[in-house]
Amino acid sequence: MKPIYLDNNATTPIWPEVLEAMLPFLSHQACYGNPSSLHWAGREVNAAVERARQQVADLIHATADEVVFTACGTEGDNFALLGTMEALASKGNHLITTAVEHPAVLDTCRYFEQRGGRVTYLPVNGQGLIDLGELEAAITPQTVLISVMWANNETGTLFPIKEIGAIARRYGVRFHCDAVQALGKVPIDVERARVDLLVLSGHKIGAPKGVGALYIRRGTDMVPYLHGGHQERGLRAGTHNVPGIVGFGAACSLIGPRLEQEMQRLQRLRDRLEQGIRLGVAEVGLNGHPQQRLANTLNLSFPFVEGEGLLLALDMLGIAASSGSACTSGSEGASHVLRAMGASDMALNSSVRFSLGYQTTEEEIDYVLEQLPPLVERLRQMSPFSSPQDEDLSVFNCPVVECTIDDH
């Protein structure tokens, strides 16, 4: 069996069609001009950048002039939060977010607090969702921005974005949404969602690393993020990453027509994986919402198994998975997302995230189902803890569900 990649929430392989679209802009024979140059070489490349801008805008139902290209999702989140808070400093210094945001948001919020800002971190329930009543109650006259992700990168839990957007609009508060994990996995319509700022990243949808975008609703005041040039309407200086931008646009144009069909396929594979694991492994806990989640994401806890050990053992079998955000791999401490959801220490340390992609096949899922159950059993036999039969597994604070395999 060839190596199996089930860590697509960390990054995805580039679509062949995307690579083909990029190649002319990596060649020394054509399409090599600077898009800011006024001569023929620059105009040719600038046209490609603007075509990609329209392709990104089309996927989220925005207009092209509302899309600003960035280097990544992290830059987009920094730009959205700090650019907004500085632009609206005279109106207030209060920001509302959640305890389970990506570090790109949480670390930026902490930076903002160090400089005198005030941040409310909304708690989540055991399935990773916020209470909309608590969100509304947290709004004060000093609140100028609400920041809530569309989909959680670790659990796949989907937030009620339209309802949050309606609350923000009712109180006259800006709404920023990190949609890095949602793009290409759920339909996104910035108008219907009433989002003012939306962050996207190319390498999560089959485009290359090093390119992202920030949607800024027309008429939204922002302080420029980078200085030193007129690029991106003066909001983000720096020479464009033309091959990356072209690839990002190509990926967006490919995903749009096939989004619904692909997500149905991935959900069938994800459910096959989950149900097969539950049939083969005793006492497995689901982290996140059982229905309100991304079609490609499965986060499970395996009581009495050390999660990192399980990942290393899977890696030796050619199976790539993860324990959470790639941006926190190697850092000390367990998942802040699962901890905010109230998971016990044992559940925190036994969690594994499987995230499927366009290249994932049924044969690969079946191979994982062959290898994983006996692997978990061997690791449990070596565990210093008691056997699962001897313990009350309610302490794991994650639901244990009986189900049968769906034959797709």
In short:
The protein is of the alpha/beta class.
List the helices and strands and how they pair.
Blueprint (H helix, E strand, L loop, with lengths): L3 E2 L10 H7 L17 H21 L6 E4 L2 H15 L6 E5 L4 H12 L3 E5 L9 H7 L4 E5 L13 H10 L3 E5 L11 H4 L3 E5 L10 E5 L25 H39 L4 E2 L10 E5 L5 H10 L2 E2 L15 H5 L4 H5 L1 E5 L6 H20 L27
Parallel strand pairs: 1-11, 3-4, 3-5, 5-6, 6-7
Antiparallel strand pairs: 2-8, 7-8, 9-10, 10-12
Overview of this structure, please?
- This protein folds into two domains: 4-9 and 259-396, Aspartate Aminotransferase, domain 1 (Alpha-Beta Complex); 16-255, Aspartate Aminotransferase, domain 2, CATH 3.40.640.10.
- It is 38% helix and 12% strand.
- It has twelve helices and twelve strands.
- A seven-stranded mixed β-sheet has the order 2-8-7-6-5-3-4, with helices on both faces.
- Helix 1 (16-22) packs antiparallel against helix 8 (242-280), helix 3 runs parallel beside helix 4 (103-114) and helix 9 crosses helix 12 (362-381).
- The longest helix is centred in the middle third of the chain and has 39 residues, at 242-280.
Features:
single chain; about 400 residues; alpha/beta; Aspartate Aminotransferase, domain 1; Aspartate Aminotransferase, domain 2; 2 domains; 7-stranded mixed β-sheet; 12 helices; globular; disordered C terminus
User: How many helices?
Assistant: 12
The tally of strands reads: 12
Q: Helix and strand succession?
A: EHHEHEHEHEHEHEEHEEHEHHEH
Mean pLDDT: 91
> Shape from CA axes?
globular
CATH architect. name of the largest domain: 3-Layer(aba) Sandwich
Residue share in β-strands:
5-15%
Please compute the radius of gyration using only Cα atoms: 22 Å
| Tally of individual domains | 2
CATH-wise, what's the superfamily of the largest domain?
Type I PLP-dependent aspartate aminotransferase-like (Major domain)
Low-confidence stretches: 388-408
User: What is the SS-derived class?
Assistant: alpha/beta
Per CATH, the class of the largest domain reads: Alpha Beta
How would a textbook summarize the main sheet? 7 strands, mixed
| Distance between the amino and carboxyl termini | 21 Å
The percent range for helix content is 25-40%
The name CATH uses for the topology of the largest domain is Aspartate Aminotransferase, domain 2
Main-sheet strand order equals: 2-8-7-6-5-3-4
